[in-house]
């Protein structure tokens, strides 16, 4: 009987889910499928500008990006201003969260020629 009550509570809880949780899904910031179409990180002067553009185009505040990646907000601000460079592991984490590459990954033309 205890399992039946727990199961019915879970069903009731899921069915009755309304209020701010249902409205939250509609306003998620990562539901823009075309936000990164035609993304070219090499058109920016430094990777901080690419980071800032990607963050602002997806409407992610800098504090929230820092919290999600566990990178200091001050460090991210310095990177965006061009005063600091991203460490490779920080860049990978930011690329994973933002969904765009912040640095060009192609081999140089000399390395590609046979």
Automatic annotation (TrEMBL):
InterPro entries: Lambda_DNA-bd_dom_sf. SUPFAM superfamilies: lambda repressor-like DNA-binding domains (SSF47413). One of its GO terms (molecular function) is DNA binding. This is HTH cro/C1-type domain-containing protein.
């Amino acid at each position: 009987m205890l399992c039946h009550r727990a199961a019915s509570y879970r069903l009731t809880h899921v069915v009755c889910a309304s209020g701010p949780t249902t409205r939250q899904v509609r306003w998620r910031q990562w539901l823009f499928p075309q936000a990164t179409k035609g993304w070219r990180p090499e058109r920016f002067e430094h990777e901080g500008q690419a980071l800032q553009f990607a963050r602002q185009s997806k409407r992610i505040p800098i504090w929230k990006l820092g919290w999600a990646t566990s990178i200091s907000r001050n460090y991210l601000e310095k990177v965006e201003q061009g005063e600091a460079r991203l460490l490779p592991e920080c860049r990978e984490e930011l690329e994973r969260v933002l969904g765009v590459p912040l640095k060009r990954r192609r081999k140089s033309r000399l390395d590609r020629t046979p």
